[in-house]
Amino acid sequence: MKTKNILSVTKPESPHMVGDGFRVFNLIPGDYSMKEMDPFIMLDYNSKYNFAPSLIPRGVGAHPHKGFETVTIAYKGRVEHHDSSGNGGVIAEGDVQWMSAASGILHKEFHEKEWSKKGGEFQMVQLWVNLPANDKKTAPKYQSLRHQDFFKVSLPNDAGVVEVIAGEFEGHKGIASTFTPIHLYNLKLKKGGKLALNFPSEYSTALLMIEGSAKINYDQVVPEDNFVRFKKDGESVFVEALSDALILVMSGKPIGEPIASYGPFVMNTQQEIREAIDDFNMGRFGYLE
Ligand code: MN
What's residue 86's pLDDT? Predict the structure, then answer.
């Protein structure tokens, strides 16, 4: 098998706030087109950041999403969400929320109340996964994925563990159901631990160094919080941890459809974007205080 060469290594450079609760670095689409990492159309990374205690939880108030999925991974801190269909819940440390906004939803995302009172170190990823045209019409749904339920694959030579969130690793399946083929793992390597990851060459593939540092493809040193994208020129990615490391690994089959996007709406055509904005303005996404 051929190595997937590195396309880019991105340092987290200029953060922006989403509401007042998420201090994020935008890593997808960054300065390139949303099609480049298809089906991954957006990735915001809140690297470790200390929030002071607050009786009023910080976050982002009611806002819509339509046409894709939001995948929220809480590494430190807790996030609470509520939506226009009356659903709500808490994403605790290590947990993942896979929300299919699909035909449209209104929701809000805040630091969980009790966590907010204490404050502390907060670290989170929000990844947006696009949907094929037909699935954009389906009803919204949630998957609350608990850390304790992830399949954890121990690696040979005590190198570490692969936690399979979605897709599969060496035949072990993740608990998330996805509309298109996607592999999503938390790769936990001990210092010196090595692993070769294999994905089809045409898949969009990237890694985010959540904790620690690693050498990628033998000679590229990737520090904490850096984001690595791979070319579609081979199947294998080699990882060697330079310290104990936690790496978010994503690889997905491109959907290959046209993308029209406007803020929280991602559709196939500008006409559909105009309809989504109209629907939102007319209150057809429901109601949320
Ligand atoms: Mn949202």
Answer: 84
CA 64 to ligand 1 centroid distance, Å? 7
Instruction: State in Å: Cα 243 to ligand 1 middle.
Output: 34
Categorize the per-residue pLDDT at 33 as very low, low, confident or very high, splitting at 50, 70 and 90. Answer: very high
- At 285 the pLDDT is 87
- Position 239 scores a pLDDT of 98
d(CA 108, ligand 1 centre) in Å: 6
80-95 mean pLDDT: 92
Mean pLDDT of the chain: 96
Evaluate if residue 289 carries a pLDDT over 80. no
CA of 91 to the centre of ligand 1 (A): 13
Cα 83 to ligand 1 centre (Å): 10
CA of 69 to the centre of ligand 1 (A): 10
**47's tokens:** 């690297």
How much is the pTM?
Answer: 0.97
